[in-house]
Amino acid sequence: MEFSDTVRRRRMVRRFDQRPVPADVVDRILDLARRSPTAGFAQGVDFLVLDTPETVADFWRITDDREFPMSDEFLAAGPTVIVLPIADHRRYTARYSEDDKADFGLQDADAWPVKFWDVDASMAAMTALLAAVDNGLGGWFFGISEHERELLDHFGVPDGIRPIGVIGLGYRADDETPTGSGSSRQRRPLDEQVHRNGW
Ligand SMILES: Cc1cc2nc3c(=O)[nH]c(=O)nc-3n(C[C@H](O)[C@H](O)[C@H](O)COP(=O)(O)O)c2cc1C
């Protein structure tokens, strides 16, 4: 598929066929995702992959909003694979403590004006979403609104590091149609968004 077609075809898919995605397809997607740029080549992005019905069910059970629980209908068409791109600031402060980076003064996570570990995890997530399209899958990026630390503890993620969000992957359901803000709002015109040689 042409790169520009991959970009244009990508949109968030929120209803999935329940056919399992082979592990090697997920690995292919994440192998591309980890080739995204990282500051100082710190490579501080890890991926927690949940790809069994049990672990995916654990994900929804733990993160569900107890007041507004997910409907059975929603869960029956959920992504069959959940990937958490986890940004590890410790790899960045360690990398920027090395001789060639020490002068930047970024040995402490609080000193970073932009948290490059979150930037890098976002870049990896975008690559994963595009790679999903290229591999015939749908992808859905969304945030965790409830019980994030409980979720991370359940899956043994070390204290102090966290995901930037969630990537749901799977085969698009036959009856899936675009939903969400992207389907109900107009894209801004290019010349409104691009400020050439000044704002
Ligand atoms: C940082 C970020 C957070 C998002 N959070 C959610 C979310 O929590 N739930 C959801 O359904 N979609 C979420 N989205 C998807 C956006 O709604 C979607 O990308 C946007 O409406 C444009 O649609 P498209 O990606 O289908 O082109 C998120 C996207 C981004 C980049």
CATH H-level superfamily title: NADH Oxidase
Please outline the major beta sheet: 5 strands, antiparallel
Number of separate domains: 1
Report the CATH C-level class: Alpha Beta
Which fold name corresponds to the CATH topology?
A: NADH Oxidase
* Uncertain stretches of 5 or more adjacent residues: none
Integer-rounded radius of gyration: 18 Å
What are the distinct ligands in this entry? flavin mononucleotide
**How many runs of DSSP E, i.e. beta strands?**
5
Helix content: 25-40%
Question: Can you tell me the overall shape?
Answer: globular
CATH A-level architecture: 3-Layer(aba) Sandwich
Distance between the termini: 35 Å
Structural class: alpha+beta
Strand content: 5-15%
Total of helices: 9
Mean pLDDT: 97
Topology order in helix (H) and strand (E) letters: HHEHHEHHEHEEHH
Describe this entry's structure for a reader:
The structure is a single chain. The chain has helices at 3-9, 23-33, 53-63, 72-76, 89-95, 116-134, 148-154, 181-184, 190-193; strands at 45-50, 81-87, 138-142, 162-163, 166-170. With 199 residues, it is α+β, with helices and mostly antiparallel strands. Strands 1, 2, 3, 4 and 5 form a five-stranded antiparallel beta sheet that branches. It is globular, with a radius of gyration of 18 Å. Flavin mononucleotide binds next to β3 and α8.
